[in-house]
Amino acid sequence: MRAQFVLSEIGVGLRRNLTMTIAVVVSVALSLALFGGSLLMRDQVDNMKGYWYDKVNVSIFLCNKADAESVAKCAKGAVTAQQKKDIEADLKKLDVVQTVSYESADEAFKHYKEQFGSSPMAGSITPDQMQESFRVKLKDPEKFAVVATAFAGRDGVQSVQDQKGILENLFGLLNGMNWVAFYVMILMLVVALMLIVNTVRVSAFSRRRETGIMRLVGASSFYIQAPFIMEAAFAGLIGGAVASAMLLVGRYFLIDHGLDLAHKLNLINFIGWDAVFAKLPLVLAVSVLIPALAAFIALRKYLKV
């Protein structure tokens, strides 16, 4: 097969169907940008889970005098010094526990003032209304149930709270957004495949005379089909390149500059450039393989010579 002939046929096909080729490029670019974005979003969620779960504490809040009057679990009164010692000792005996720290009511009040000092409610809160607590660092954040089961109904314990549950709501929202992007990507990819199939059909029909002659002189099916397949692959590659550029610009604009989320949301450990560059080869490979495969399947059915 002469490469020059194949390349010339590719150029002819792209020029004859320029509008549809542009439509293919745009749809492939958008679908693959969403594809790459969904992969990066998944990496971001996993990265955030690894970062935040490592900082998650289980909080065991102890009964105070106010709780003894209003909370059923504290009906026996405020926690005693002996109960606190027993709770701390039993916590340290658990294999799932890494560290245990105690926070007094005064320390809790101080932290409250630091975080919510500007709130109108802050002036009405007094130290004796704050709860003492044990902050428990687990070796595995998934083992929260072990601590909750052991201490939830214990005398002197008002409640056992897992900070992981709060984070799960955030991660659930992010995962939901990721799935929406994935489904939109599937829709755009279907549109791109339909455009590719239609473009190949039109191109094959417009060149049916040439392909008929090639068949008569003994050209193989692959020799006849190759220009059409390479046209689709080339258009897809352009779309993949555009999608890759969109991912790079998106990372640069959203995180490093423009919106500058890396500095505005410094509590979030954003994925780095290495994660973005790692996805680009996959995006480019998909941009070539899927259009080429779609063209091959379309040609088997619609190329009549």
Fold and architecture overview:
The longest helix is centred in the middle third of the chain and has 44 residues, at 163-206. The chain has helices at residues 3-16, 18-53, 65-70, 81-93, 105-116, 144-151, 163-206, 208-216, 221-256, 261-264, 273-302; strands at 57-62, 97-103, 133-138, 157-162. The protein has eleven helices and four strands. The two termini are 19 Å apart. A four-stranded antiparallel β-sheet has the order 2-3-1-4. The mean pLDDT is 77. It is α+β, with helices and mostly antiparallel strands and 305 residues long. It holds the Pfam family FtsX. Residues 56-160 form the FtsX extracellular domain. Keywords: Cell cycle, Cell division, Cell membrane, Membrane, Transmembrane, Transmembrane helix. This is Cell division protein FtsX. Belongs to the ABC-4 integral membrane protein family. FtsX subfamily.
Question: How would you briefly describe this protein structure?
Answer:
It is a multi-pass membrane protein. This protein has helices at 3-16, 18-53, 65-70, 81-93, 105-116, 144-151, 163-206, 208-216, 221-256, 261-264, 273-302, and strands at 57-62, 97-103, 133-138, 157-162.
